[in-house]
Amino acid sequence: MSGIAYLLMILRRAGLHFQEELKIDNPIISIDGIPLNDFDFIDVGALIPSSGAVPVVIKSLIFPASPEQ
Question: What is the number of domains present in the chain?
Fold first, then answer.
């Protein structure tokens, strides 16, 4: 499956370990240090070549309460 990168929200070293142990040829993007909650949506942008970083935006989905009847 060329052209696909895997995204792991774990420690960077763990992502490298997965790549080596599972012999995954595709790139693995490991992101850590970002607190997540239920209903969070993660938007990961394109790689910034000069820094090796990727922009990450966390969006929290909020659902309105049911109207009381």
Answer: 1
Helix residue spans in the chain (DSSP H): 12-21
Which residues, at least 6 apart from 29, have a Cβ–Cβ distance to it below 8 Å?
5, 6, 7, 8, 15, 44, 54
Beta bridge partners, 48, equal 53
The residue segments making up the domain with residue 52 are: 6-60
DSSP 8-state assignment for residue 67? P
Q: Is residue 66 part of a domain?
A: no
Please write the tens of the pLDDT for every residue from 8-60.
Answer: 666 556 766 777 787 877 777 777 778 888 888 888 888 888 988 888 898 88
